[in-house]
Amino acid sequence: MRPLSYTRAFDVEAAVATAAANENSAFLAGGTTEIDLVRLGVTGPDLLVDINALPLADIEEQSDGGLRIGALARMTDVARHSVVEERYPAASQALLLGASEQLRNMASIGGNLCQRTRCTYFRDNMSPCNKREPGSGCSALEGIHRGHAIMGTSEHCIATHPSDVAVALVAFDAMVHTIGPDGARAIPIDDFYLEPGTSPHVEHPLAHGELIVAVDLPALPIARNSVYLKFRDRQSYEFALVSIAAAVEVEDGVVRDVRLGIGGIATRPWRARRAEEVLIGAPATREKFIEAAAAELSGASLRRDNAFKAELAKRAVVRGLTTLLSGEAR
Q1: What backbone phi and psi angles, to 5 degrees, belong to 7?
Q2: Cβ contacts of 235 within 8 Å, gap of 6 or more
Q3: Where residue 2 falls among pLDDT bands split at 50, 70, 90?
Q4: Half-sphere CA count of 64, side-chain side, radius 13 A
Q5: CB-based contact 69:109 (threshold 8 Å)
Q6: Residue 255 pairs with which residues in a beta bridge?
Q7: pTM value?
């Protein structure tokens, strides 16, 4: 049995210092992912720094109309918060669709954003995996890859990012706040997720010992008219084959603003900027939605078993937008 040390931190600075002092340490919040990975032998930290006693669970309205969510706020608490339900319904829906009630009561927002892929080859600890063991190869390329990514991939990794709420947060331009050995910084969420390139094991631009302390949602009126739809093999507690976070503002039949995030298809939560560009200033019609979705998916890298995701993602984009315009989202 491999030895593992545990300590509990009671202030942020101590947590950061303790983690930074041990090059093979990890933070522990809800533990719904971290403990699984340790048990499977996928990760092997020498030290777990328990951060649950830190004062990072508040959900606070900001003076500019935005919302600050503490990194230790539990998924259930965020999903059921009245401001989140009213101003960012897609985020609330994504959280509720993301896991069972028991897991949502434990899992933290910060941990959810950093959760690791559910790729079988990453988690079985036997097959070659560049994300788990850099340079060993990617078993999914020629193996079972029905659920794998078609966007943002490389020859080194095609694993999808599993978070639901991250898809909505990417669509809403959230900001991730951290404190690390070199101080505090704010990272736009679109920069928080790194595509695999030649280094799939590097998933975030975080220094060792750098701790997420909060996530900011900006004041964004369009987010009030938003929806999150999730398409999966079964309706009960399953990861997305494709999901869509959509928000739209239409005036006189013309799209004035639109936000689209797509999950389940990419190595990161995918902001559909190409589709957004096609739609802004265009008629709010089903035909235009189809055109925009096709433009976004035109760069997909399709493989033997996951090619169906391109068509499914196109239909998800259209479904999300038409759902909003029909008022069904309310």
Answers
A1: -145, 155
A2: none
A3: confident
A4: 8
A5: yes
A6: 250
A7: 0.96
